[in-house]
Amino acid sequence: MQKCLICDSGVNEFMDFGRMPLGNGFLDQSQFTDEYFYNLKVGFCSRCTMVQLLEQPAREQMFHDHYAYISSISSRMSEHFKSFAHTIMDKYLIEPDPLVVEIGSNDGIMLQHFAAAGIRHLGVEPSTNVAKLAGAKGIETVCEFFDERLAETIKGNKGQADAILAANVMCHIPYLHSVAAGISRLLKPKGVLIFEDPYLADILEITSYDQIYDEHVFYFSLSSVQYLFGVHGMEVIDIMPQNVHGGSMRYTVARKGAFGISPDVGEQLLKEEHLGLKRDTTYHHFREKVEMSKNRLMTLLLALRNKGRRVVGYGATSKSTTVMNYCGITPDHIEYISDTTHTKQGKFTPGMHIPVKHYKEFCEHYPDVALLFAWNHGEEIMNKEKMFQDGGGRWLVYVPQVKIL
């Protein structure tokens, strides 16, 4: 039995997705024979309640000089991070000359608002290509992985931080104890860590198994986050559910006793007990729902193919890698995937090698059905694609259930 990355107890495996490529490993045809694969398995630790991958590729394989995800492409996420930034400014930056540090700052989608306000800031982004995009916007960025050592360096160079931020990043990091220790050293006595990630209860409720891929080593509940930071003398003082990425939770963490604890924290812990997030049976039931979703999706795709319907994927997301490789979706099922990210266009999807084409291909020759891989941006996308729908185009979705809209 594999040891838990948080508390060293045994982890109970509950789902094996099989042989899997890198979620963001979009590639050229010449790279097919050398493509990297690993075993995508996920388990639950009953001691600290952390759900986690049992194997993860090396961080340098996932975050590098050609990382495919650029945050600012989504207008909805741009608005989300603008609101996030202003919430921090209004509530937590109360001392003179504050410092904000963001872990995994991508292209500066959030830090740009602090820069515009003249607030001292530093982004920590390990992927060279997106770190350069942030630098071009005038956002101070270091291209490194955040850990305890780097936290000490930042503290020596800039002093302690009023706020440390992270969005859809903490769940990527297997060495969270080094990160938490670094955060504890870098924060001022009344400083706060505020981060948000996909929320475990939402994943279980809507069967969004595509949230499980190489970059997401952890699937946080409030109880597991509380356990982790409790080891480092910190505590969760507030939470706020977020309606992004299919359901996320924003956690505010501070040193023990530095602030009062919101009643929402206790209420959410009771809710997690009720939802069974500390019981093995909950995760075995999730596996059964995933298997059922797979079977229904493949049955529907085969039926569409047999009827001669053209099916195209919409959104070459890292999440889609799990769906396509676990379900066995090939170019026989979907012609190509339409995507607006220039770094993915002209390449092929990881594992299943489905072509990724420019968005104009979708607009110039609408398919009969679009398989919506970017379902977490569904509202934004469907509002954008009125012409496709008005012309008789249909959406095929698989979260929260498989159906044609």
Please describe what this structure looks like.
The chain contains 14 helices and 17 strands. It is α/β, with parallel strands linked by helices and 405 residues long. The protein folds into 2 domains: 71-257, Rossmann fold; 282-404, Rossmann fold. Strands 6-5-4-7-8-11-10 form a 7-stranded mixed sheet. Strands 14-13-12-15-16-17 form a 6-stranded mixed sheet.
Record keyword descriptors for this entry.
single chain; 405 residues; alpha/beta; Rossmann fold; 2 domains; seven-stranded mixed β-sheet; six-stranded mixed β-sheet; 14 helices; 17 strands; 22% strand; globular
Please state how the strands of the largest beta sheet are arranged side by side.
6-5-4-7-8-11-10
Number of helical elements: 14
Per CATH, the architecture of the largest domain is: 3-Layer(aba) Sandwich
How would you name the CATH homologous superfamily of the largest domain?
Vaccinia Virus protein VP39
How many angstroms separate the termini? 43 Å
Describe how the helices and strands are arranged:
Blueprint: E1 12-21, E2 37-44, E3 51-53, H1 59-62, H2 75-91, E4 99-103, H3 111-116, E5 120-124, H4 128-136, E6 141-142, H5 148-158, E7 161-167, H6 176-186, E8 187-198, H7 200-206, E9 218-219, H8 222-230, E10 234-242, E11 248-255, H9 263-275, H10 280-306, E12 311-314, H11 318-327, E13 337-339, E14 356-358, H12 359-364, E15 369-372, H13 378-384, H14 386-390, E16 394-397, E17 403-404
Parallel strand pairs: 4-5, 4-7, 5-6, 7-8, 12-13, 12-15, 13-14, 15-16
Antiparallel strand pairs: 1-2, 2-3, 3-9, 8-11, 10-11, 16-17
Helix pairs in contact: 5-6
